[in-house]
Amino acid sequence: MTALDPGPDTQPAGGKNLADAKGAAAALATSRRRRPSWGVLLGQPLFVAVVIGAWAVWRSNAELDAIEQRQLEWGLLGRLTVQHLQLTVVATVIVLAIAVPLGIALTRPGVKRAAPVVVAVANAGQAAPVIGLVVLLAIWLGFGFWTAILALCLYAILPVLRNTIVGLQSVDPTLVEAGRGMGMSNRAVLGRIELPLAVPVIMAGIRTALVLVVGTATLATFIDAGGLGSLITTGIRLLRYPVLISGAILVAALALLIDWAGRVLEEVTRPRGLE
Amino acid sequence: MSEISGVDIELTDVVKRYPGQKKPAVEGLSLHIPAGEIVMFVGPSGCGKTTSLKMINRLIEPTSGSIRIGGEDIGRQNDDDLRRRIGYVIQGGSLFPHMTVTQNIALVPGLLGWDRRRTAERVDELLELVGLDPARYRDRYPRELSGGQQQRVGVARGLAADPPVILMDEPFGAVDPITRQRLQDELLSIQEELRKTIVCVTHDFDEAVKLGDRILILTEGAQIAQYDKPEAILASPANRFVADFVGAGAALKQLTLSRVSEIELSRPTVAEVGAAASPVLSAAKAAGDTSVVILDGKRRPVDWMWTTDLDGLDKVPAPPDDTDLVTIDRRATLNDALDTMLMSSHGSAVVTGRRDEYLGVVDFQAVVTRIQEHHEEQATRVDTEDPTGAPA
């Protein structure tokens, strides 16, 4: 233990809390081994930067025909990327706004019994093939951005909903009772104990949803909602492999970046004091 | 003894019936808990002791009957307000892992709207009280504490808003025996200062005997088997059930009733860290001591050196980092004292008082003498006592 905390006050008075002090030192040791993931966190965007850089170099120097030139024009690429991000962010925000409160409600006494039913519905939303979902919704509601958003939301609601429920359910019930026993209201227990402790699990669900959405948004092009998917479909339709492959690379890079952002968010929002 | 700051608790015909169960979990419990006392609830598992405890802060609502705290019927109060005025300490401390020690302790004061400064002062005061250095521990997270330290913080949290009544649910169940003994001693010395009304559930009868001013032994349905002072229960169990529960070693359990403070302590030579060594050595020689107890500036024992080790040194040295001096509180039982001596290389144990201040040394012989006295007292008491076993 001396190696860990050699300060003169390490030794409790009278050697009295010796067992305690040793235990605490061990606890500190484990806490210092935490957060090894920053290396991974830095590696991922670096990798994406290298891939995008290499692609940009190719794009600047490659000999392209007129169609390819037009499809891979920088301004258009920028607009498609922004569209793709809009689809992703708007869908995710809506999913959060629905799934987190719903997940909270489904863990409250009284409403609890409805949880399996709701989760089953959400499950169906995810199990259904997205392409079918997108097309069916478009036939029903018409083409466009908001129909795509609806399809994406249906598809991505499950992980957030399920993780919110699981995260809240896995909070040690004695902590909830401790909070109640100290005179915290149900609302205060939820806001100050249950939710903070469930944050890591909920955030994992949100990251999953983000990754699902960013990938699935590729299909939005089928109902005229834009996004980087249109590069892929155009590439296939016009048999222009440079366009097709550029689209695939850009979507993959964006997905990796979004995944990375999700990981960073997970690290940042994890309450201090939790392993 | 300081002034009583607790209030009394009166349970009248309290019943708790769970839907779908034939027998009530608590079947008409009536009980008076005097102000400023520690009352221990013991009994086999499922006897309703925890249910009874949780009805006092309405974590469980009684089906019928009334509970009064300090004369006020708690059924008519807002349950959150009620609980803010009752300390609650649970097994393992149940600290909130995402909050620092300070945030955990400051929770109830925060709910009561204390200002920041008053809360901060209170947190430091409480950490001192439970034997944790505020500067070192106040900003730590629970996982950076050992089990015993977490439990100490749990006790501090229960005391935070200075409630007159404290409920404890198996408070020391999750720590090792040595730490448990320390925590029990500390609770007793804290109680000596504060005189709260403490209701404590335990499954450990020895703990009940050690801590309790009174022990409530319950059978199924929270029926009172016996409710009396520990001495009386040990000396004359009310019935077969209590006798079985107390166990065969009732006479030996009396050891748990005797405190180190009842024994006359020997007072070997002491020296303060940094004092010149030679006068200490000559004092030890004059007293015939082969060892010297080393104290720090606040008269807390930090080391126990053989005179041979001190010989040739200029000054009394500060204790090495790996000192393994184990001390016992004067409130420790003879049982605890014997345990501690077995671990000590000196065959005796250093005794401390309030806030770890040095009091003296208890040796094996003194404990044995006290046990013998006890047996003799016991024999005469049994002879003279009313054969029905009613407490004198």
TrEMBL record, chain B:
Alphabetically, the GO molecular function entries are: ABC-type quaternary ammonium compound transporting activity; ATP binding; ATP hydrolysis activity
Protein family according to the UniProt entry: Belongs to the ABC transporter superfamily.
Q: Which InterPro entries match?
A: AAA+_ATPase (IPR003593), ABC_transporter-like_ATP-bd (IPR003439), ABC_transporter-like_CS (IPR017871), CBS_dom (IPR000644), CBS_dom_sf (IPR046342), P-loop_NTPase (IPR027417)
The top EC class is translocase
Q: CBS domain: which residues?
A: 321-377
Entries under SUPFAM superfamilies matching the protein? CBS-domain pair (SSF54631), P-loop containing nucleoside triphosphate hydrolases (SSF52540)
Give the E.C. number(s).
Answer: 7.6.2.9
Instruction: Specify the superkingdom.
Output: Bacteria
Q: What is this protein called?
A: ABC-type quaternary amine transporter
Annotated ABC transporter domain ranges read: 9-245
Q: Which organism is it from?
A: Kribbella sandramycini
